[in-house]
Amino acid sequence: MQTDEAVMRPSTKDAFQLKGSLFTLTIMQVVDLNCDKISIQLDNVVAGAPNFFQQAPMVLDFNHCKQPPTTQQLSSICDALQKHNISPIGICGDHSDILRQAAAENHLALFPKQKTEKSPSPAKTDASTRYKTRLITQPVRSGQQIYAKDADLIVTASVSNGAEILADGNIHIYGTLKGRALAGVGGDQDARIFCQQLEAELVSIAGLYQLNEDFAQKYPNKNMQIYLDNERLCISEL
Question: What pTM was computed for the model?
Answer without folding.
Answer: 0.61
